[in-house]
Amino acid sequence: MKIGLLILFVLFLVLPPDGIHKSLAARPSVVHIGSILRFNSTIGGASVVAIQAALEDINSDPTVLNGTTLKVDMRDTNCDDGFLGMVQALQFMETDVIAIIGPQCSTIAHIVSYVANELRVPLMSFASDATLSSIQFPFFVRTAPSDLYQMDAVAALVDYYRWKIVTAIYLDDDYGRNGIAALDDALTERRCKISYKVGFSSSAKKGDLINLLVSVSYMESRVIILHTGAGPGFKLLSLANQLSMMGNGYVWIATDWLSAYLDANSSVPAETMYGMQGVLTLRPHIPKSKMKSDLISKWSRVSKQYNHSDLRTSSYAFYVYDSVWTVARALDAFFDDGGKITFSNDSRLRDEVGGTLHLEAMSVFDMGNNLLDKIRKVNFTGASGQVQFAVTGDLIHPAYDIININGNGMRTVGYWSNYSRLLSTVLPEVLYSKPPNSSLANQRLYDVIWPGQTAQKPRGWAFPSNAKELKIGVPNRFSFKEFVTKDNVTGSMKGYCIDVFTQALALLPYPVTYKFVPFGSGTENPHYDKLVQMVEDNEFDAAIGDIAITMSRTITNDFTQPFIESGLVILAPVKKHITNSWAFLQPFTLQMWCVTGLFFLIVGAVVWVLEHRINDEFRGSPREQIITIFWYGADSNILELNISRSRLRALGSPEEYAKALKSGPKRGGVMAIVDERPYVELFLSTNCKIAVAGSDFTSRGWGFAFPRDSPLQIDLSTAILSLSENGELQRIHDKWLKTGECSADNTEFVDSDQLRLESFWGLFLICGVACVIALLIYFVTIIRKYLRHEHPEEPIPPEEPSPKKGGSKYNCRKFFSYLDHKEPPKKKQTLSSLSSTPTTPVTNFTVLEIERPVRTVRNGSVVDIED
Ligand SMILES: *[C@@H]1O[C@H](CO)[C@@H](O)[C@H](O)[C@H]1NC(C)=O
Ligand SMILES: *[C@@H]1O[C@H](CO)[C@@H](O)[C@H](O)[C@H]1NC(C)=O
Ligand SMILES: *[C@@H]1O[C@H](CO)[C@@H](O)[C@H](O)[C@H]1NC(C)=O
Ligand SMILES: *[C@@H]1O[C@H](CO)[C@@H](O)[C@H](O)[C@H]1NC(C)=O
Ligand SMILES: *[C@@H]1O[C@H](CO)[C@@H](O)[C@H](O)[C@H]1NC(C)=O
Ligand SMILES: *[C@@H]1O[C@H](CO)[C@@H](O)[C@H](O)[C@H]1NC(C)=O
Ligand SMILES: *[C@@H]1O[C@H](CO)[C@@H](O)[C@H](O)[C@H]1NC(C)=O
Ligand SMILES: *[C@@H]1O[C@H](CO)[C@@H](O)[C@H](O)[C@H]1NC(C)=O
Ligand SMILES: *[C@@H]1O[C@H](CO)[C@@H](O)[C@H](O)[C@H]1NC(C)=O
Ligand SMILES: *[C@@H]1O[C@H](CO)[C@@H](O)[C@H](O)[C@H]1NC(C)=O
Ligand SMILES: *[C@@H]1O[C@H](CO)[C@@H](O)[C@H](O)[C@H]1NC(C)=O
User: Fold this and answer.
1) 3-state secondary structure of 611
2) Superfamily, domain 476-566+703-726
3) 147-288+398-442 CATH
């Protein structure tokens, strides 16, 4: 009896509590999941090993799926042949599986995703195709980063090195096309673009690939992005090497297929590596962890066991390993919730399709939704890092290593993480512990050894060898021909701007063939906005000349660095000896122009603007904006008035310019002239009697116009900078635009920019008048006080007889002695309303206002002093 009780007691202790017992009992002893991989591929082979390693670990770990053995049925599929691969995958779906690791290839993933949705079987896929979104395919669970992030990283790399255009070579299937589409979006966001896209089929012959590479080499861009699989990718790289496209000037960026292959394949020959020197590639970033190193240490044993001893771990192996763990953990939670593995026939498959395809053999995983839910909620640290799914269905914290192939190995030059969306030399997991900082100042990579064994960053583009002659539009000027015009005799274009352009071109390290096309008749000045517009419309490849870089023009076109300063300048006829009212105001108004950058005009005065470009349209040009803004000096209101064009007079030549200025507004001339500085300077060099009156109130320059994102523009800008630094620009300037002929002695007009003593006489006058008035007021107050003091009873009677002579003398003395011993005020009165208002803390005796009653601040409070 006692023994019986004891046995019962022991049994009670040994047997688990009721609930756990139930759930354990409900658990099947074996659970099958499937996997669709391509065993032959490097990634597929590594995945096989990773799955086996994961199974070993899971089945020996009592904390996960205790009592249940996880098994994986693996199926080999063919990725190259989409149809065959699809049939193999569909056949596999007929077996009752509750989750699938894979498919590996994006093409098959697309098809299988539809089926998985119908059968409610979660797909744990590392296909990177960005279009396999979890919205369209809820049962597609991406266990590796999407190409969206990889392409963002590539675009960040392109942008970091300031390349503007790239060539994309891709495998023409779902994976390649969708990857390049994502790249296109990412580059566009950073104002870069794919200038040439070329796809090829996985069955392309060597000849096709050579033709492809030759077509790429004809293109302008030297930055080539290779988004393919390992097989064709290596073929292309080795052919490119033979075509000497792996040399100086080229940039190759391979997506993660290259790093995955090089990581996993231990037997890549050294020659292959030496053929790829300087190539950049990306690798999904796997942080260092114990689980990672555990997997690496058991890898060689497991890989030998499964006949893949030539394979090492790659990023994908870690993702696959974690996928199996994800399923195991989700299943655990699934069973804990009372989940059961049952299947039912899909009535839609049975009734509608079926037929000879035997699709009715496929069955629906009844509680697939529950399992999917558990998978999406997992949160654990695996071999690949934190395994947790964001709302988008992606693993959180996508990050990539940026790798440079150098010597016989790979060198990590930095990292990209979605956390900051920047390139950085700081490990992503270090960044995660700080708040995200997207400051571009943090962007940095270690030095890269580029193809051709150079550390110097390639320019990223070359003048295309099949390039046509550049058609360059050049203004054919009528006036100020020194800047640019057509030579009457030779018919060629000449002038200051032409010299700057040819000198800058000579600095480029490559030849550029071009021809100048005169724009305009030469009998009047051409319309510059139209010229720039023609560049935008691709009628010209560039436009050079005296083209002002204005806001409206930079919206549509790119400009080089300015080669000469410009900006609008005011010329006003200020003579030294003029003392009329206009001259009195002038120094102030002109200073106001300089300070505020606004054009000042006195009402009634007429401004005629010299318009040497006869046909220039005023509408929309900065000139118009300036002449339509008036500032009424006293009232600082800015009014915008539209001056009708009839009030503007266009003057055709520098001679008219001088004449109009000299005659002045009263005699049909102009009062002020607004024009760009270089013209004004040239004009002044031959017209000694005139000088600049007001300085620039816009700051800009002249540059050469190019279409958007033209690489030539960037190189020319650099060339112009070096011309400026070595003094060549000044030499060209002196050759064409002589200045300094006029000496200061014969300058009739003065530069009123300078402040002289007489500039201030108006101010002195105002101050003097103010002082006199203040003094008068003071005396009037004092005299009134004095009179009241003398006659306290009655106010001063108006009919009081005038004082006598002696009386007047006495009165004077009395008055002065009153001034000397001023009597204190008779009584004080505090104005409560005023003292209650807050007053600024002041020193003991500050007079605020001189008026009646006199208010004084005394010891922090305002008091009224009655007289
Ligand atoms: C694997 O590769 C071998 C040799 O390269 C080939 O014969 C075989 O057909 C391939 N298998 C698959 C499934 O692609
Ligand atoms: C590893 O690379 C070598 C040389 O490129 C190749 O012959 C071999 O098939 C590769 N191994 C695997 C598993 O891809
Ligand atoms: C796993 O199950 C066995 C018996 O089925 C039990 O003895 C063991 O304690 C369980 N382990 C855990 C961690 O639950
Ligand atoms: C590995 O290869 C050997 C010999 O070819 C074969 O006997 C064995 O079954 C293979 N093992 C696996 C896991 O495929
Ligand atoms: C599903 O259909 C197959 C044949 O069409 C049949 O053998 C099987 O019993 C059915 N299963 C269920 C659960 O109805
Ligand atoms: C996931 O786990 C980590 C640590 O293991 C924890 O800090 C985090 O809060 C968890 N996230 C969620 C959503 O449960
Ligand atoms: C990547 O970053 C963007 C913006 O910073 C964020 O909206 C998105 O959720 C991130 N993706 C993942 C998977 O964390
Ligand atoms: C971001 O980084 C920049 C450069 O290191 C630093 O100046 C800035 O303060 C940082 N911003 C924040 C919010 O931490
Ligand atoms: C250039 O040609 C125009 C008209 O064709 C003529 O008026 C002008 O004098 C010529 N100038 C020179 C320098 O030959
Ligand atoms: C204000 O006056 C008092 C005496 O009337 C003097 O002690 C004090 O220093 C004065 N304060 C200032 C700021 O002059
Ligand atoms: C202001 O007045 C207070 C008392 O009314 C006095 O204590 C203080 O010294 C005075 N301050 C000055 C600067 O006179």
Assistant:
1) coil
2) Periplasmic binding protein-like II (3.40.190.10)
3) 3.40.50.2300
What single string gives the DSSP state of each residue in 225-269?
EEE--HHHHHHHHHHHHHTT-SSTT-EEEE-THHHHHHHHBTT--
Length of the chain: 867
- Alpha-carbon span 208 to 274, nearest angstrom: 24
State whether the beta carbon of 84 lies less than 6 angstroms from ligand 1: no
Mutate to test the pocket of ligand 1, among 36, 40, 88 (most ligand atoms within 8 A of CB): 40
Query: What is the DSSP pairing of strand 568-571 with strand 673-676?
Result: antiparallel
* Cβ atoms of 443 and 424 closer than 8 Å: yes
User: What Cα–Cα distance (Å) separates residue 703 from each residue in 330, 477, 544, 706?
Assistant: 64, 16, 7, 10
Ligand 10 binding site (Cβ under 6 Å of any ligand atom): 843-844
- Closest by alpha carbon to 541, among 665, 660, 705? 705
Kind and range of the H or E run holding 855: strand 854-858
Residue 486 CA: which ligand is closest?
9
* DSSP-assigned beta bridge partners for residue 470: 514
Q: Which of 430, 442, 443, 444 to mutate to test the pocket of ligand 8 (most atoms within 8 A of CB)?
A: 442
Closest ligand relative to 396 C-alpha: 7
Same fold, 19-145+306-349+360-388 and 476-566+703-726: no
pLDDT in tens, 772-794: 888 898 889 888 888 887 776 55
Q: Does 210 sit in the ligand 2 pocket, CB within 6 Å?
A: no
- Domain range summary for the chain, segments of one domain joined by +: 19-145+306-349+360-388, 147-288+398-442, 476-566+703-726, 568-699+751-761
Quick one: which atom of ligand 10 is closest to the CA of 843? Answer: 13
* Nearest atom in ligand 6 to 381's CA: 5
Q: Give the model confidence (pLDDT) of 180-195 as tens digits.
A: 999 999 999 998 999 9
Nearest CA to ligand 1 atom 6: 40
Provide φ and ψ at 166, rounded to 5°. -135, 160
Q: Does residue 307 line the site of ligand 4, with CB under 6 A?
A: yes
Residue nearest to atom 1 of ligand 10 (CA): 844
CA distance 66 to 69: 8
Alpha carbon distance 488, 478 (integer Å): 12
* Atom from ligand 11 closest to the CA of residue 860: 1
Lowest mean pLDDT across 42-56, 442-456, 768-782: 768-782
Q: Which atom of ligand 1 is nearest to the CA of 39?
A: 13
Q: Whose CA is nearest to atom 12 of ligand 8?
A: 437
Tell me what pLDDT residue 351 has: 66
The backbone region for 597, taken as left when phi is positive above 0, alpha when psi lies in -120 to 50, beta otherwise, is left
The CA distance from 157 to 253, in Å, is 9
